[in-house]
Amino acid sequence: MKGIRRTVAAMSLLFLSAECLAQNTAVPFLTIPSSVEGNGMGGIGASLVTEDAISNISNPAQLGIFSLSNSFSASSYAPKTEWLPSFGGGQSLDASAVSAGLRLDRDVKLPAPISLGIGYSTVYFNLGSFTTFDPNNPSAVSSYNAFEKADMLTLGVGINYIVKFGLGYTYKWIDSEVAPAGLGHPIGSGAAKAAAYDLGAMLQIPVVDIASRLGHTPLVFGEGVSPLFNLTFGWTERNIGGGLYYPFQRQSDPLPRQGILGWNFEIGLQTRVDRQPWKLFSFTWAREASGILVSVQTTAAPDSSGYPVYTNHVSYMGGLGKIHPVANLLYGQTTGDITVEKGWQIQVAQCLYFREGSSSPFGGYAYNTKGESFHLNGLVMLLESFHIWNPQHGWLAYLVDHVDLQYNTSVYTSRTSLLNNTRFSSINIVFK
């Protein structure tokens, strides 16, 4: 039993060092920001509109917005992320996802564009290899690899009527394998399974388009160039469910139920190339607030054989929990147990993206982030605009108009946290 306790305690320390918010809960890896693009902007994800299928993990409503303009996306970490590299414990994080969307109004007469989306994603957290010892013999007797993972099915709905609105739902299958059977205790193993779900909503307001409609005159500067100003709001409640029951503990640990609220604005210039919308330049600024919506108090008492029996007393918060929209999202204050993330992005020709951000967790250990992206389709549109290359017919023209290949990368930096130099990268292919 002591061996299992030390193992679990060590793993908990890793998560606490990573500023994961889910203290005293099971599977805290579910709170790690997974979007590589969002991780370049301080770890945001609930309100950042992107074509990356992995973004569904951050907010299932992303799928609703995605399906309004795209038919398919597949994304994967490339390579997997070495978690807490300065710790050197062999931990790693890996994620991959696929999304498919269908515009219903293209086949059925509807008053506004409406879309449906379906996606699958998976996150695998490798906790590393561990060696077990016989208390009476210092020689190693066996080893095992500990891991935790989640497989997720996401459904999304998108509506584009003056504003873009997305709703999403994700169902999760969670598997935790932290210790094998018989490790220092006769009761069961450190393995548990559970189910949970996420809910999310996103709202994007195209301010310039609305102003043009109200004035009955498009805002154009000349040569087809028009201003761009979008406001986006996102909300999600994640990991809603009961708990995981570990036989060796003889108790159920609650899931890290998490609430996230965020917003951003994007300003820039846009035009069209061969009837496709093209953002020439834009600047995005974003801020999000997140908090754990569960409180856990643990008590212990010995059973008849002398082994301690632990009991968790769990309570949940409703709504936004302790998130204060004004203090946290407008003024950027870190209040109570709330973590505040903020970041910015500069986009050039829908080809190059540069990002920076920071995260201020409630327990300290703030860290900064940087990131970049390259989109092949943006480069092609740039070449077309200068009449350097302009395929008109055949399969090459179809690929240029409907397929994009994207590469994203980001890194955490900190002087005080084990997260320093933790790097993320992903490859994403999109069919429009």
What this model shows, in words?
With 432 residues, the protein is mainly beta. It is 14% helix and 52% strand. It contains seven helices and 19 strands. The strands form three sheets. The protein has a 14-stranded antiparallel barrel with strand order 1-3-4-5-6-7-8-11-12-15-16-17-18-19, surrounded by four helices. It has a two-stranded antiparallel sheet with strand order 9-10. A hairpin with a 1-residue loop joins strand 5 (137-161) and strand 6. The termini are far apart.
Describe the structure concisely for a colleague:
With 432 residues, this protein is mainly beta. The chain is built from seven helices and 19 strands.
List the helices and strands in order: HHHEEEEEEEHEEEEEEEHEEEHHEE
Strand order across the largest sheet: 1-3-4-5-6-7-8-11-12-15-16-17-18-19
Number of helices: 7
What can be said about the biggest beta sheet? 14 strands, antiparallel, barrel
Helix content: 10-25%
Shape: elongated
Summed up, the domain count is 1
Beta-strand portion reads over 45%
Q: Estimate the mean pLDDT confidence.
A: 84
Report the C-alpha radius of gyration, rounded. Answer: 24 Å
Give the class from helix and strand content and strand pairing: mainly beta
Low-confidence spans = 1-22
Total number of beta strands = 19
Alpha carbon gap, first and last residue: 54 Å
Topology:
Blueprint: H1 2-17, H2 36-39, H3 61-66, E1 72-77, E2 81-82, E3 92-103, E4 114-134, E5 137-161, E6 163-179, E7 190-206, H4 207-215, E8 226-241, E9 243-246, E10 251-254, E11 258-273, E12 276-292, E13 294-302, E14 308-316, H5 325-330, E15 339-348, E16 352-360, E17 367-375, H6 376-385, H7 394-402, E18 403-413, E19 423-431
Antiparallel strand pairs: 1-3, 1-19, 2-3, 3-4, 4-5, 5-6, 6-7, 7-8, 8-11, 9-10, 11-12, 12-15, 13-14, 15-16, 16-17, 17-18, 18-19
